[in-house]
Amino acid sequence: MIVRRSAAELAIMREAGRVTARALRAVGDAVAPGVTTAELDEVAVAIIEAAGAKPAFKGYHGFPATICASRNGEVVHGIPGKVRLVEGDIISVDMGAIVDGYYGDSARTFAVGKVSAEATALMDATRLSLEAGIAQCYPGNRLYDIGAAVQATAEAAGFSVVREYVGHGIGRNMHEEPQVPNYGTAGKGPQLMAGMVLAIEPMINAGGAGVRQLDDGWTVVTADGKLSAHFEHTVAITAEGPYVLTLE
Ligand code: MG
Ligand code: MG
């Protein structure tokens, strides 16, 4: 069952999204060669605490940090630590905040200094695939219209879509029904209705779609070691169309 949120609930989720967006921007502003991913985590903690919100990821199934920091060939769920960013890296940062029991969830891949043409193209295609997915968020459309749009955009740019990890419904829990795959057949799946809130989050690989998990039990990497990018917004479906909650 897919929960539909009231206007009052969406107003709280907008605030959770605003805090999430502010923290993610601050982390992005701090990205630079020589900075550690643990230092990026501290930036996010400071913003979320100052807003009186709670981090959504810390302690989630035992995850030890406030942000996921996934570098280069890491896809998602990288654990912040002592690793120092190097000029030319790309770093995917995923984070969420909780306000009054409601969740926001957003991710973005940042360039560390000057990056390769391939890295730039991958980040652009991933962001555009998210925007294409969001553009499907109208009542009456079908759930897999979103994934079909994401997939078409990413593959047209010559990249591949991760299958094992997907977007999700979000509200009073970070992960609710339905799963929101980044691939699929347009016209299929449950009908979208006003009040549904979805976290849409394409994970797009420069090489093959395959991924594997490292022995730390968290970090997911590309099977071929090539780059991966990740962009995510929390989006409400309204009568007027998509309402992106994770903006400042
Ligand atoms: Mg996320
Ligand atoms: Mg998510």
Structure commentary:
The protein has four helices and 15 strands. It has 248 residues and is an alpha+beta fold. It has one domain: Creatine Amidinohydrolase, CATH 3.90.230.10. The strands form four sheets. The protein has a five-stranded antiparallel sheet with strand order 8-7-9-14-15. A hairpin with a 6-residue loop joins strand 11 and strand 12. It binds magnesium ion (2 copies). One magnesium ion binds next to loops.
Kindly list the characteristics that best describe this protein.
binds magnesium ion; 4-stranded antiparallel beta sheet; single chain; globular; alpha+beta; Creatine Amidinohydrolase
End-to-end CA span: 30 Å
CATH fold field value = Creatine Amidinohydrolase
CATH H-level homologous superfamily name? Creatinase/methionine aminopeptidase superfamily
If classified by CATH, what would the architecture be? Alpha-Beta Complex
Shape: globular
Radius of gyration: 17 Å
Order of helices and strands: HHEEEEEHHEEEEEEEEEE
Largest sheet: 5 strands, antiparallel
Highest-level CATH class: Alpha Beta
Bound molecules: magnesium ion
Which strand order do you get reading across the main beta sheet? 8-7-9-14-15
Total DSSP helices? 4
Percentage of residues in DSSP E strands: 25-35%
Question: By helix and strand content, what is the structural category?
Answer: alpha+beta
- Quantity of strands, as a count: 15
Low-confidence stretches: none
Mean pLDDT value: 98
Count of individual domains: 1
Oligomer: single chain
Helix content: 25-40%
